[in-house]
């Protein structure tokens, strides 16, 4: 049984390493990674991709924060595995699971900031359109929108204003540089239409209004999809927790009955079933994601 636990731990660690490798390969083909590498010194930290994603969204994530979340994640994971199995040696399997905690924490912070920016960008675009119709130029409209907006929109738009005031960027370059701060198709579109109109002309105020309407419609559609898929997401959460909760309860009520599950053959079956449960959970969660 001890040997099987060690083998299972090594297998779990291998899967986690493969996950990190895939993330690194995908990141290196992303345009944000290329721009980030020209302005930031690359870190040898295994969580470098988290620092990059946080920086791209304007978040200041320190190594101490990551290490704190990692330590908490590892401790909680080991405790949960021990609560389910009751085997100290098998609880080591929770160690690689704890490495997912920093990833989940950073991604949730980025997701919340991105959604807040989308909501604020609607108002900012409408305000910029009104400023343009009032006779202001694009730079003045951008400055006014940055002053009036709330965080994080004021920080992101304010970054573009700072680039303009530095004298080293024109409006097109400032917008393009700002677009790397957010993983938002709307911000990329804003930079694109601003660039096109700056070069070839056009009714930029009308385009900004249309872009604001488009963002509003997409957010409304996403809310409808979220409401429609809420039951499936709750089902996925229950199906993920329930099997392990049942094993833990049954182990406490009847340890002798559950003992074969933690033998050599039982650990293999438990590992396979756990992998299938997690895969099903990820598939169900993925079905509720709408890309547009």
From TrEMBL:
The topology of this chain with respect to the membrane is: Multi-pass membrane protein
Nucleus among the record's keywords?
A: no
Question: Where is the protein situated, by its record's location annotation?
Answer: Cell membrane
Which UniProt keywords are present, listed alphabetically?
Cell membrane, Membrane, Transmembrane, Transmembrane helix
All copies of domain Type II secretion system protein GspF, residue ranges: 125-250
Q: Mind telling me which InterPro entries this protein's record contains?
A: T2SS_GspF_dom (IPR018076), T2SS_GspF_sf (IPR042094)
A single Gene Ontology CC term: plasma membrane
The lineage's top-level taxon is Bacteria
Residues crossing the lipid bilayer are 6-22, 66-83, 89-106, 234-253, 265-284
Xref: PANTHER family: INTEGRAL MEMBRANE PROTEIN-RELATED (PTHR35007), PILUS ASSEMBLY PROTEIN (PTHR35007:SF1)
Q: What is this protein called?
A: Flp pilus assembly protein TadB
Species this protein is from: Desulfocucumis palustris
